[in-house]
Amino acid sequence: AWIITKPGQTVTADEIRDFCKGQIAHYKVPKYIQFVDAFPMTVTGKIQKFRFFVNFTVIFQAIAKFSLPQ
Question: If you average pLDDT over residues 33-41, what whole number do you get?
Answer without folding.
Answer: 87
